[in-house]
Design a protein that fits this description.
The structure holds 2 protein chains of 2 kinds.
Chain A: H1 2-24, H2 26-34, E1 51-56, H3 71-78, E2 85-87, E3 93-95, E4 98-103, E5 109-114, H4 128-139, E6 155-160, E7 166-171, H5 178-181, E8 210-216, E9 220-225, E10 239-244, H6 248-256, E11 262-264, H7 267-272, E12 279-280, E13 284-293, H8 303-312, H9 315-321, E14 327-329, H10 353-360, E15 365-372, H11 376-387, E16 392-399, H12 401-404, H13 412-415, E17 418-424, H14 428-436, H15 450-461, H16 465-482, E18 485-486, E19 489-493, E20 495-497, E21 501-502, E22 521-522
Parallel strand pairs in A: 1-10, 15-16, 15-17
Antiparallel strand pairs in A: 2-3, 4-5, 5-7, 6-7, 8-9, 9-10, 11-20, 12-20, 13-17, 13-18, 13-19, 14-19, 21-22
Helix pairs in contact in A: 8-10, 14-15, 15-16
Chain B: H1 25-34, H2 37-55, H3 89-95, H4 97-125, H5 127-142, H6 145-156, H7 160-187, H8 190-197, H9 202-238, H10 250-257, H11 266-293
Chain lengths: ~525, ~290
Amino acid sequence: MINTRSRHRHRHRAVRLALAASVASFALVLSACSSSGSASPSSSSAAAGGTYTIGVSEPTSTIDPETVSASGAMLIVGLASEGLISQDSKGTLEPRLASSWAASSDGLTWTITLRDGLKFSNGDPLGAADVVATFNSITGPDSQSAGASSFEGVLKSVAAGSTPNTVVFTLDSPFSDFPYLLTGSNTTIQPASYKQGTNWIDNPVGAGQFLLQKYTPGQSVTYIKNPDYWDAADVKLSAITVNFYADEQAQLLAFQSGEIDQINDSATVASTLNLADYRQTAPSYTHFDGLFFDVTQAPFDDVSVRQAVAWALDRKAIVQSVYGGQATVANDNEYFPNFSVQPTGIPQRDQDLDKVKQLLGGKTVKFTITTSTDHKTLAEVVQQQLNAIPGFDVDIQVLTSAQYYADGSSTPWLNAPVTITDWAQRLPSQFVNLIFKSGAVWNASKYSNPQLENLSSQYDAAAAAPEKQTLANQIATIENNDVAAIVPAFATGSSVLQKSVQGDFAAPLDFPGGFDFRGISNSK
Amino acid sequence: MTATIPRSAAPTAEKQGPVTDDAGERPSRIRSLLKRPSFVISVLIIVWWVVAALGWQIVGLEPYAKTGDLLASPDWAHPFGTDNLGRDMFARVVAGAGPALLVGPLGALLATVVGGTLGLVAGYYRGAVDTLMMRFFDVILALPSLIFLIVLVGAFGISTAALILIVGILFAPGIARIIRAATLVEMGKSYVTAAKLQGEKDSRILFRELLPNILPTLVIQATLSLAAAVFITASLSFLGLGEQPPSADWGLAINENRIYLQTAWWTVVFPAIGVASLVVAANLIADNIREVSR
């Protein structure tokens, strides 16, 4: 009996030890399990230019070209539809469905000329009426399109031109950079019969480089080349597959196994992959993560406090630790480095602890930074840097994206005293209208400066380069001095590609670049 | 802790079976436990983590500051290496004992108090009260624990107090069932009958007569619940439903760093060892107590 019990005890302890081993591998197992993406194996390479496979997170809401905002959903739409104009990786405008564009002498109207013989994927011709209907739908009073914000206070009306295949955009005031707005999100052209709010996946009509063949929820989307595309000769790939993965780690493993052909470069990707074994696309500017202060609330109603925070940040360290070097140090204005006009004469801010001490005047500033999980690394680094300096006592609150961008008037991203929110690349004056203009819906800083708004309007109307330069200097100086928002860095994006991918992308795979696969092939 | 047969009227012949918690046997049990290496080592591990949770600030560890290069491998300066923000992983693992020993143990304590009390009441009164409670607990126990947990987090939030309450709710039914069963066994013994015949109040019988006799079972369940609670709170943090950045919580650290598993294993393995050591130590303590109590 004793022996039996003893054996039982030994067996029991062995179970415990086995449990020890099991729990010790807790993280490894969880990591591995969470990486088991639901993607199907990539298709075998077809004839011609082969098949290209991309990994994204599966969209969680209805895919509507006029309202999509998630990057994965934009890709799914963008492969099968096309806008009037796109931007290349240097920000130069590229004609797509439009062949040309011209402004009137007073700058109040822009006439867009469409290419001849454009067709939708269902065989219907694409003409001026479709363009007019698309923009009226995007900017209509009931529109739910995020793209509408770009045209608020800018676009008065859109109508078919006096000659076939022309469309006239009439503006509220002169806007010399108006064509850039036509590269914005949700501006791909839909048939005039399309109704906003429709589940586009059920009838994926478009005029893009590929035809959506099959959408399998939880797995993938498959496309084949669109033979009726206006530049079909330059589209070499015969098919594209978009696989869905749960997270970045799953995508990384899929890329390492060769299941997908590209992955977005990031600090984690760069630290894991030996980049010499792969190709990389040229980096291009994508967004900035801004630190917004509510300037109507203490202590941020004192500009000295805002400036102290701005001078306390080690921006070079932020570029390394947050962006893995994939960013450029910024100077608290919204002029992306690839924009044609760059402010001059404003010294670049870098960490200056003497200036911080002077600006704080011996007081301690205590505050909480609120942000979403997407920006928690920046929040942690800012907290880390500030708390290392006497005079700051900073806490952070990290919310899920759903909580941070919750609907309603009390949404945290527009109401918390200090927030971190990312903004995709736009024209500098658009930022003034969207985030700094008095009463603007997305003005998280509650900032108001009539002088800045006036200068921004003048900038939009200006056509001559010297005048634009002078105004840009004045605008950036105000933004830099008032520090309603800190822009620590402009992030760049690039993709790591398998070596089997041939050809160079004209632009990043995003909405300004128009998801352009011309010239790309895959020998896999 | 009172003797199990406090009244002289209780027949000595009935002093048998589980009614053994007298002054002579208690030191003997403790001596037996102290002779068991797995028990001693487990206790030392728990004591180490308690000391770590309470004392990391005193010794000047900096779990939140950048103290080295990004993702630096373990060396003399950083024995556990650094994470993606240059924070010392040793400091973070040590500081991570704080959240691990806050929610888990307090939640397990709450579960033990609530579950133990309800189990005692159900086993003592039986009848409708017993049936009602047990069927309700059956329903709760039938639910997948992680899904149930996520629903509770959605209902109560992720504050520390809410998480303690949630862990308490999760584990109380299991403890209640076991304590009820132990109570039913005790109810058949004469010391309970004697206490009733002497006109003792129900509360006194429950907590002065029955409770001391089922205490070993309760302690074992409490310890097992502690281990499970630590594990479950780490799982919640891993899922982003527990501690939030920049907390040094072990589950959160595992989740945040798993993307670096291929290049910086130390950012995941050391927090995992933290969870493992605490969970296994608590299980081994329960195991040893159970064996000695037989």
